[in-house]
Amino acid sequence: MDWKRLVQFALLGSGDLEQCAILLVRVSLGLFFAISGANKLFVAGGTKPVYETLVKAKVPFPHQTAYFVSGVEFVAGSLLTVGFLSSPAAVALLIDMIVATLTSAVSTVPKGLSPLNWLDDFLYLPEVLYVLFFTWLICAGPGKFSGDYWLAGKLLG
């Protein structure tokens, strides 16, 4: 076994595997949001929980906003899945998750915690993890296995 390569992998990771990681995260998040948005839009009563959350958070125009948010999740998730317009789709979903965090998720963190325990509970929220993943995808790009990579090659090559 080549110990130098093993140590290098353990300390620095592998550029060869980075594209696979980007693909896995992009497609998984894209599918999750596309399916979630589709269920809200195309299943009877699907927007009701979104509507109720928006009313509770006192968001203006909750009925229209519920459909808008569901549409954003469906369209942006679908685009992210295939890797087409990935960065704009990730930005749309990033904004969606920031708003969800601020209007709803933060209120689930118990009151009266020490700052460290509050931060622990806050970082445990799935919306926060999505924000981090979308930030990473925006910075890393959609990867070589994407429609964007192919399109960039045609337009810029």
Indicate the proportion of strand residues. under 5%
For the biggest sheet, the summary is: none
What string, H for helix and E for strand, traces the elements in order? HHHHHHHH
Query: Level of helix content?
Result: over 70%
Structural class: mainly alpha
Rg over alpha carbons: 19 Å
Query: In one word, what is the shape?
Result: flat
Low-pLDDT segments: none
Discrete helix count? 8
* Straight-line distance between termini: 40 Å
Q: How many extended strands?
A: 0
Descriptive overview:
By secondary structure, the protein is mostly helical. It is 77% helix and 0% strand. It contains eight helices and no strands. The longest helix is centred in the first third of the chain and has 28 residues.
Show the helix and strand layout.
Layout: H1 3-12, H2 15-42, H3 48-56, H4 62-82, H5 86-103, H6 115-124, H7 126-140, H8 147-156
Helix pairs in contact: 2-4, 2-7, 3-4, 4-5, 5-7
